[in-house]
Specification:
The chain is mostly helical. The chain is built from 21 helices and four strands.
């Protein structure tokens, strides 16, 4: 039952976008002065976050703005202020029309993050957050955003800081990937078939006819250079810091996008041999083997990967809400746990192809008329056999399905980045900056 959901949610390898952490203030001062400034900064940030918790975002922004203006060389305060504005304005990013005041806040967020980056040039996360703001808000180009991170990358490389170099390489790869996705697989119209949007709505098959017969993919496909460059940065990050699973997940994402399943299988298998405690190596291997038609190997890899996930992460990935429309998620979450389990079991029972086909034969046998009625016994027989087979597979103990993991996993939880949440699939909540980051 859970295996189909696992395959569904893993068809896109997970991306966790970077957020915000505090960096050291660059200005040198006597210890007592530094201690007093740090205490004052902490009080201001705590006060602002308390205001955010009550929903008073404007007051929180004012508190941080005034404190940063009073301490113009405190990179931490400027970064905190910039990240608050970034999170506040994010719902309006890349929108043609914005309410009054939003464009000014976006510009203020950019200038605040730029100032924090200048004040703390060695801060990896300041550079990442600044570049995400530049690219995500659509006020500047990818080239400018990428340049910010590449400058920080050169500094980290010159300092021999391989961990920071790996994080920045991964972040640059994600910037390139975000630019790749909107242009990937673009097509152009070669003829007009005269269809209207209403016809596409009433007869969805006509849209497929239009795509296949009236449009053509660009040759060479758009975005190839971006894909290649992003993959190169992901691999560089993984080589520099193989203990961090994020670059592996991003590399797997890029290989899966290109349908390079054999290569993904090789990369993931090597990773699982070197770091068997990493859940995402096994999950990427399971996805690759599933797409190659190696179902037994895929099942074993998926089971091994899910066994290594932290319990809350595993529960989230296996939750039926991931397949629901957003409007239904709140209702599903409000149900008692036992009822959620029953609805999940019912969903997968009804999604069983053997049960569906058997039900179709039974329905056909019931409604047969005329000469076709002579086939009613055959339809009932086939339907009954298929339904019985489907019910038998549903009644198999779950322990038999889970016993195929390749070995007994190490009970280790993948470490989060210092000062960060692992975040949600497709994005993360910025624990320190007060808002969500671009995904």
């Amino acid at each position: 039952m859970l295996r189909a959901l696992r395959i569904t949610v893993l068809c896109g390898v997970i991306v966790v976008a970077p957020g915000s952490v505090a960096a050291q203030a660059p200005a040198m001062a006597p210890p007592d002065t530094v201690s007093a400034a740090a205490r004052a900064r902490t009080l201001v940030i705590d006060r602002a976050r308390a205001l955010l918790a009550t929903g008073d975002t404007a007051a929180a922004a004012t508190t941080l703005r005034d404190a940063a203006a009073a301490a113009p060389n405190d990179g931490t305060l400027w970064h905190e202020y910039g990240m608050l504005l970034s999170a506040w304005t994010r719902p309006y990013w890349r929108k043609g029309s914005m309410p009054n005041g939003v464009p000014q806040r976006i510009i203020a967020a950019e200038s605040s993050l730029a100032r924090a980056t200048r004040l703390a040039p060695d801060s990896v996360w300041y550079a990442i957050d600044y570049a995400n703001q530049l690219w995500g808000s659509n006020f500047t180009s990818l080239t400018m955003a990428k340049g910010v991170q590449e400058r920080a990358l050169r500094v980290a490389s010159a300092n021999g800081d391989t961990a920071s170099e790996a994080r920045l390489s991964d972040a640059v790869g994600m910037l390139l990937w975000r630019r790749y996705e909107p242009v990937a697989n673009r097509r152009y119209e070669i003829m007009n078939l005269g269809y209207t949007p209403r016809e596409f709505f009433d007869q969805p098959d006509r849209f497929r006819d239009y795509i296949d017969g009236a449009t053509k993919k660009w040759d060479p496909p758009l975005g190839v250079a971006l894909h290649v460059e992003a993959l190169r940065y992901f691999r560089r990050a993984r080589d520099l810091h193989p203990d961090d699973e994020s670059p592996l997940r991003h590399e797997a994402m890029a290989l899966a996008e290109g349908g390079r399943w054999a290569e993904l299988s090789q990369v993931a298998a090597e990773h699982t041999r070197q770091r068997p405690g990493h859940a995402w190596g096994w999950l990427a291997l399971g996805l690759a083997e599933h797409r190659r038609g190696l179902m037994a190997a895929a099942t074993a890899a998926f089971d091994s990967g899910f066994a290594r996930l932290p319990p809350d992460e595993r529960a989230r990935l296996e939750s039926l809400r991931r397949l629901m429309p957003t409007s239904r998620e709140g209702h599903f979450d409000s149900l008692p746990p036992a009822q959620r389990e029953r609805e999940t079991a019912l969903y997968w029972d009804l999604a069983n192809p053997t049960l569906l086909l058997g039900g179709a034969f039974l329905a056909a046998g019931t409604w047969m008329e005329g000469a076709a009625a002579a086939n009613r016994p055959l339809a009932f027989t086939l339907g009954g056999v298929l339904v019985a087979a489907g019910l038998f597979t549903q009644l198999l103990p779950e322990s038999q399905k889970e016993s195929s993991s390749l070995d007994e996993p190490e009970r280790t939880t993948p470490p989060a980045r210092p000062g960060r949440s692992l975040g949600k699939l497709g994005g993360s909540t910025n624990k320190d900056g007060g808002g969500a980051q671009p995904s």
